[in-house]
Amino acid sequence: MSVIAVAEQGVLTLTLARPEKKNALSAAMYQQLSAALQQASSDDSIRVVLLTGSDNCFCAGNDLADFLAGGSLNHEHPTVQFLHILSQFDKPLVAAVAGLAIGIGTTALLHCDLVYATADARFQLPFTALGLCPEAASSLLLPRLIGYQRAAQYLLLGEAFDGAQALQMGLVNQLATADALLGLAQQKAQQLAALPAQAVQQSKRLLKQPMHQQVQHVLHQELAEFEQLLHSDDCKAALNRFFRR
């Protein structure tokens, strides 16, 4: 299992555990994450989901070879299924981020309710360098969060930024040292789990509601353009360079 799921005191902790690939997400991991979120949604004993990785790596993005082997980006593709489930998840999502958070490792955080990170965490959205476009509705959510110019800096140029910058931008709620990060995230998750569940879930729904339809529309649009770009000469050349490294 590359995703370890542990439920305790109303909190389901999902740990990405594929250190040999820097927690790059495979099709199997997407399926495990989707199944865990669906089960958590329907299980009244689970009130909060906490997503984390290892002490020095949250997620290095997609496992590109595995992703490309998954076929067309339709509703059956594991990545597509996960993005839709993540973007519509109805219970609080908390993330603890240390080390690398590349591609989906950053865009997934835009759908979390609380994000905690280390100051030296490294966030990056290298889509254009691969001949690709943003995903996970990040082309909508990131400019809304941090402003257009900074979003363009990170989505067009693909420049990296650290945890301190992410805190200043509002992507991260609070910083912690590496050894205190998980404890802080667990504390906040348990704090949420101790609150009246219906009130918390209704409040999240109200917070998300104004942009819900727009997020789903942009998510679909991005995936359509992402798939088109996958077949472009620029993307093929970029992926060939990536696999030769």
From TrEMBL:
Keyword Membrane attached: no
InterPro entries: ClpP/crotonase-like_dom_sf (IPR029045), ECH/Chromodomain_protein (IPR051053), Enoyl-CoA_hydra/iso (IPR001753)
Localisation: Peroxisome
Recorded superkingdom: Bacteria
Keyword list, A-Z: Isomerase, Peroxisome
Major localisation: other
Pfam family, one: ECH_1
Biological source species: Rheinheimera tilapiae
Any coiled-coil regions, as ranges: none
Lineage: Bacteria, Pseudomonadati, Pseudomonadota, Gammaproteobacteria, Chromatiales
Isomerase recorded as keyword: yes
Protein name, per record: Enoyl-CoA hydratase-related protein
